Automatic annotation (TrEMBL), chains A, B:
One of its GO terms (cellular component) is plasma membrane. Residues 7-273 form the O-acyltransferase WSD1-like N-terminal domain. Residues 317-462 form the O-acyltransferase WSD1 C-terminal domain. Keywords: Acyltransferase, Glycerol metabolism, Lipid biosynthesis, Lipid metabolism, Transferase. This is Diacylglycerol O-acyltransferase. GO terms for biological process: biological process involved in interaction with host; glycerol metabolic process; response to hypoxia; response to nitric oxide; triglyceride biosynthetic process. Pathway: Lipid metabolism; Glycerolipid metabolism; triacylglycerol biosynthesis. Pfam families: WS_DGAT_C, WS_DGAT_cat. It catalyses: an acyl-CoA + a 1,2-diacyl-sn-glycerol = a triacyl-sn-glycerol + CoA. It comes from Nocardioides luti. Belongs to the long-chain O-acyltransferase family. InterPro entries: Acyl_transf_WS/DGAT (IPR014292), CAT-like_dom_sf (IPR023213), O-acyltransferase_WSD1-like (IPR045034), O-acyltransferase_WSD1_C (IPR009721), O-acyltransferase_WSD1_N (IPR004255).
């Protein structure tokens, strides 16, 4: 039962090498329910391990051989071993968040072996505050960051008393749904064909195939015909070749605080998130004495409504485009930085709305398939990076969710640094908090965890500047 | 700085696949020194991680490319990252030996990625009795089981007060040695060229190249011309194709108890070890209702003195041959089993001493390169396995050893099951105990850990039968 791999997934398999593992990760923190026993975490692990049926997505592995004419194909894993994929781990003492982030950094550094289905999940005990952590790792050939988050959401419930909920990788039985189950996402994402899953960010096979439109878009950008595309980002330490070692740092801030800054200054929540990143990166680079004179440029994926984009993605939602945002890292004043970012973002979105659907799709590909972009840029004679880093903001559930009674108290994304783009910042909102997940090459981005402190200082600086 | 890989190492790289990872493992248990602080294990980990110089053996990884004409070569890892190789892990609660063996089983199931140097070491905390565990994993292309044990020994000391001892992978500084250091193995094994390391078991490139002598030896065995070689082992559940999942079980017994049985019955310590295995396997197979009528045959590597073997290995010690031992699993009476094993072993050694050096070397290859043996046997029209399992007994240090004050209280080997040979038993002696390490394919050998109970029962049964 061999099935073909769509070109986008195949591109991620081709692009992967030792320095650039192509998997996305997720870190979830759960609070044990009241009255949880001593063996609660072990039971949780066993429940996740002992699923009756695994969804097909999590059972196949990629294969390339003479028999498949050198093409990558999906093949069911005849030796599938759930204990390889679902693991019970523990943190060394003293079990602080620091030890958790170190473990996640290490787990995120290792490539998934292609001889097995491309995913892993670790139920982690030993946090001294008693919370349970779960780190999941899925190859980008299976899901992108957005789909991974939706997949997680699809097995959670808003009802703390619901039980018998499946693990993310469990196949959902085809039976009449109870009203409780209807409150969850209607169709299990794990049962949806991969191709449909991957459309969440509007990537199509054509985009991954680097069509003429993308080349045209880049050429336009070179000639500065559209301000949505900047190809004049300064060189920074983030824009070097990377190694395979990862450092992950994560923290969240109350959305209320960020929104208050936005209200006072007439900017959006997303503008404030970008201003936080801008200020933190500025301080970080200043400390390392390597802040360039020119402002850094971030590639920011943005949602577009169907009218703007003229294309709707397969799930009937909005399409996504990419805007190049001037981060104003040359400015000392937080208020001025926020204002500049706000203007840059608005200009970018406007430019985007005047682009053709194919151009927008090509723009998305810039952010979504950066690994395959490199060679093409060089083909076009472009040696400087078109942007310094990717900052994305993925909206998550707004209300409190549970898995079999365990309250999800935090969820943090781990992303994919690539050559020339050593730092990735992905934010997700959940239950009133904005979570920042920073994934970087440990060698190229030294002391990455310092950015967390700088982000925190920046919230305070923005509040002060806005007069909140 | 590319260097060629010797044919034997290359053979292990070629033979490796998802079902047959080709690494050997070691599990060591340490007792913390008196007055060890709360951060003792973390400090121990950091000491091992922060070595100044890594021995060349632990810095290179194998590479094969068009540039190397398709040949495997060693290449220094330009992106060497010690944190990938030396890891700090913890056991889930309740932190029994069971959780430790589960973790080791899992770690031993995963292949080493070839893009990095082929080794890993895990400093493991969380044992409820307060001991520290260390699991190490090294590719067979770097070291064999014996060399791995000698490598470990080379960094240990008999002096509990000695400090500043290097990690196994540390390069030893070339300086005048103190008298204390002289008490350790004179030359650091890690600094010895790989080829020399691998000779410990007498494997030569010719043997791995499957020379005519091996084919001749096997043909002779077929015709029953030498009793050192049996090709009439019955089919058992151990002799099937395996998967990549491993189960590891380990335990030790006082050598004094085993020696007492030997003394009373006029048999050797090694005979008693084999009788324990025989009895345990008999009970195990009976419980599964799959004990064959014919007795099982074990391949047992034995040491030969220089006169017997007419060849000395490179380190001036003894060469090693292989004897096929009738395990007498058809007999109910433990005393009769032990007597049969003793006779079979003696006959085998005698036959071995009448073989030519090349034949002996070829016999070693049977045990040492079993993965490359399979195709050759089929070439010779042999479809049944020549033996049912490998049982080896590797002598270790007789006295108490320490690493920077931490007392080594147990050391257990993890070996390599292969297709057709799903269970491997390796024993090592240390400080008055005989440690049994059982490594098997988890799917092919169900409930492998039951063998530990059966081994324990068998010691008692043998004691009773011998009248100890």
């Amino acid at each position: 039962m061999v099935s073909p791999i769509d070109p986008t997934s195949a591109a991620f398999l081709f692009a992967e090498n030792r320095s650039m593992p192509m998997h996305v990760g997720g870190l979830q923190l759960f609070k044990k329910p009241e009255g949880a026993g001593r063996t609660y975490i072990r039971d949780m692990y066993e429940e996740m391990r002992d699923v009756q049926d695994i969804a097909p997505l999590f059972l196949k592995h990629p294969k390339r051989s003479i028999g498949t004419a050198g093409q990558w194909v999906w093949e069911p894993d005849e030796q599938f071993d759930i204990e390889h994929h679902v693991r019970h781990s523990a943190l060394p003492k003293p079990g602080r968040v620091r030890e958790l982030l170190e473990l996640c950094s290490r787990l995120h550094s290792t490539r998934l072996a292609r001889e097995r289905p491309l995913w892993e999940a670790h139920v982690i005990e030993g946090l001294r505050d008693g919370r349970v952590a779960m780190y999941t790792k899925t190859h980008h050939a299976l899901v992108d960051g957005i789909s991974a988050m939706r997949l997680l959401q699809s097995v959670l419930s808003t009802d703390p008393d619901e039980r018998d909920m499946p693990a993310m990788w469990g196949a959902r039985p085809k039976r009449a749904k109870t009203s409780k189950e209807l409150s969850r996402v209607e169709q299990s994402l794990a049962d949806v064909p991969i191709q449909a899953l991957r459309t969440a960010l509007g990537i199509t096979a054509e985009a991954a195939g680097m069509p003429g439109a993308l080349v045209k878009t880049i050429s336009k950008g070179l000639k500065n015909e559209t301000s949505a595309l900047s190809l004049y980002a300064p060189r920074t330490l983030f824009n070097q070749n990377i190694t395979g070692s990862r450092r992950f740092a994560a923290q969240d801030w109350p959305i209320e605080r960020l929104r208050a800054i936005g209200k006072k200054t007439g900017t959006t929540l997303n503008d404030v998130v970008l201003a936080m990143c801008s200020g933190a990166i500025r301080t970080y680079l200043l400390e390392l004495d390597s802040l360039p004179e020119q402002p850094l440029v971030a590639m920011v994926p943005v949602g577009l409504n169907a009218k703007q984009s003229q294309v709707a993605s397969a799930d009937g939602g909005n399409a996504v485009g990419a805007v190049m945002v001037q981060l104003a890292t040359d400015l000392h004043d937080p208020a001025k930085r926020l204002a500049t970012i706000h203007k840059s973002m608005r200009d970018g979105k406007e430019a985007l709305s005047s682009m053709t659907p194919v151009q927008i799709m090509a723009m998305s590909a810039l952010g979504q398939a950066p690994a395959i972009l490199g060679p093409m840029l060089r083909m076009q004679g472009i040696v400087r990076p078109p942007y310094n880093l990717i900052i994305s903001n993925v909206p998550g559930p707004k209300t409190t969710h549970y898995w079999n009674g365990a309250q999800l108290v935090g969820t943090y994304p781990l992303s994919i640094p690539i050559n020339g783009m050593a730092l990735n910042i992905t934010c997700t909102s959940y239950d009133g908090n904005m979570a920042f997940g920073l994934t970087g090459c440990r060698r190229t981005v030294p002391h990455l965890q310092r950015l967390l402190n700088h982000l925190d200082e920046e919230v305070a600086a923005l509040e002060k500047a806005a007069g909140v």
